[in-house]
Fold these 2 entries.
Entry 1:
Amino acid sequence: MSRKKASSYTLGEIKQGTPCCVPEPHLQIQDLAVSYSRKTVLSQVSLDIYKGCITALIGPSGCGKTTFLSTLNRLTDHHEGARVSGKILFDGQDLLNDPVDTLKLRRRIGMIFQKPNPFPLSIWRNLELPLKEHGVRDHGLRRRKIEQALKDVGLWDEVFDRLETSALALSGGQQQRLCIARALVLKPEILLMDEPCSALDPLSSAVVEELILRLRDRYTVVIVTHNLAQARRVANYAGFFWMTERVGKLIEFGQCQHLFEAPIHELTAAYISGARG
Ligand SMILES: Nc1ncnc2c1ncn2[C@@H]1O[C@H](COP(=O)(O)OP(=O)(O)OP(=O)(O)O)[C@@H](O)[C@H]1O
């Protein structure tokens, strides 16, 4: 990653290491359980997601991390046979039991997927479309928002002279940053990221990881990652999921540094040391 590209970010200084001083819950998850066609895949999950912090979710394949993430903006509504119970408290509302406008909810809680999924349209249209869908009618305002979002993800300098070309012609890392810009353009409060670097080459992955770090303090981020080193580098808080009797459970949650350096549960210790999982 070149220094020039990194310096084109506009999100300010990176702050590393220390967890947020005064953690304030942004999402409160209480006794969450998910089943697919009556088969329970996740149960008894309770934790707070803190405002302005990055929370990393780790654990072996199949223990329910993606399913958990998908409940937070009700994407599970679109999973056939999914049943979700418990409570997810967000801004005075219970997202599972109160009436919720899911379009508005997903504007406030955006999702980034493992594989970059830009629309097969121009770079510009990728960002204009969600703004139009959410009622931003003023062309000048849309232009300013689009430019800012591209600057926020460090893409502006790379694409400003080819905004009308296809987003699919971008590299994988650029596509993923465009997808992050597409979420940021709607000014979300929370970003859910499902293994956002795992489909990228190491250099692109490093650029996206740096971007995630720069989002800290400005957005609440929940990231699922199999890359334990990455979780340690970016997260303030970490949650470790594990399967017990074929059901995913949250085994341990806490400050990232504590979880990695002094885990309380022996399963966490075994997983992060590579002895299990
Ligand atoms: N749409 C679905 N329909 C039925 N079962 C599902 C669905 N999505 C996930 N599952 C099941 O739920 C369980 C948890 O899957 P999930 O993808 O959440 O795990 P994960 O920890 O994110 O795994 P990975 O790290 O491999 O992505 C698995 O047994 C999976 O087969």
Note: Strands lie at 25-36, 39-50, 54-58, 82-90, 93-94, 109-112, 190-194, 220-224, 237-244, 247-255.
Entry 2:
Amino acid sequence: QEDLESELRTKSKRITYEDPDPYKNLIQWLKDGKAEVSKVQIEVKSEGYRTLRASQFIRQGEWVLFVPRTHYLSLEEVKKSCLINRKMIQLNYIPNNIQTYFVNHLLQENRRQNSFWKPYIDVLPKDVSGFPTYFDAEQDALLKGSPTLFTVMNQRKIFREEYDNLKEAVKEFQRYGYTYNDFVKFRILTISRSFPVYIGENEQQQLLVPLADFINHDNNGFLQYGYSPDADGFFMQAVRNIQKGEELFYNYGQWSNKYFFMNYGFASLTNPMNQFDFDVCLDRNDRMFKMKVELTGGNICWGNRLVNETDHDTFRQSLATVRFAQISKLDDFMQLEEDVQNYNQFWPGWHTTPKTIELEKATFKALRDLLVSELANFASTIEDDQRRLNDPSTPEFRRHIIMLTMREKQIIKKNIEVCDMMLSVIDKTSEQLKDLMRYYNYREIARFVNSEIIPMKLEAEGLA
Ligand SMILES: C[S@@+](CC[C@H](N)C(=O)[O-])C[C@H]1O[C@@H](n2cnc3c(N)ncnc32)[C@H](O)[C@@H]1O
């Protein structure tokens, strides 16, 4: 194995790139490898924040850049050319994430003086302290109340476990003295810089692609990427005409702020995919606790999510889960048991349909109380956040925490308002409700009232 390693090292000694400007080395290395990089230019906005600009007009459909297979890292490549990875495979060690194969390869190449990958490694960000995995107790405290804090803790645990297990299982990993900090740094760099790409028809691969990984995210990104079998490499393509000098962006995906924050270290106020994650749990003092647990196959809590828009299934699901927890009448529960015959497994958020106006009232009240207490858990108010965002001395990493948690709080607040609104109208007559819903802003709520509440009202009014 060591022979193969030294052979690779000799091979990589052929050309060295020693310009004091690491970006020049990167471009020259890519050009020497027959990459097509002439239409883009690197701009260093700050040491940790670089971007690409179009160095010429680029027509819609044209490739913006091309990197051949020899100059990007694929899973196949890193499994083959990294000693630790080969050992892992021999030992049948299954990493908790395939990112570990990339991390091991980067650690190896980072250690080598004359690595073929040196021009790439030299331009990877040096400082990743803005990623939540690196936060200290004081920075964690800023996330208090946010469901993201739990995810951060969990991520740290996963990273630590992998590092400790690797050290234990692969003696070379320990011998090279790779530190936990470097392991985590390369793990984060792998997460935040990899491209999921379809190579074969159904074969999705992660790739680390030099230079392409300088492009930042925007919701209105105008590039797409892929693998070209004919050219045997990775391309970025313009989906519209791009003017000379324009900054290049692509859309990293329709992800929530929490996802961006965890994987890329940023959040945005304009992300349309924001969400607030929260748990709805059964009350252990509930008389029906045991019956409910039995019905759901042993569950007590369910993860739910609310989004910006109340025009969304997530609202109905959250409501239904709370409704399940709120059922207190045997009749309602029996009706639920009847409904359940139609499903293989009972999911409170999908299957707990409205039963009575009384139950709906209790449900909106309980959801409201839950959200009010969630809101009170946060370290700061929306107003504090707004003030800090307006203050230019607020550090960059902190802005992202504020944007993340502020959006979570805004979602909670909006949903509290919906609960309040429902509680204020639920005692009205069916006619009054119909009138109110005609101009109601939240379509999902209006649809819910029209399809569920009004029929219940009509039935009750008919009986009366
Ligand atoms: C693939 S890299 C893009 C290039 C990066 N700016 C650099 O200098 O190497 C992804 C990283 O860029 C930054 N980034 C990308 N899009 C961003 C955005 N819309 N807002 C803030 N930071 C962003 C984040 O630090 C993220 O982890």
Note: The domain at 275-463 is CATH 3.90.1420.10 (set domain protein methyltransferase, domain 2).
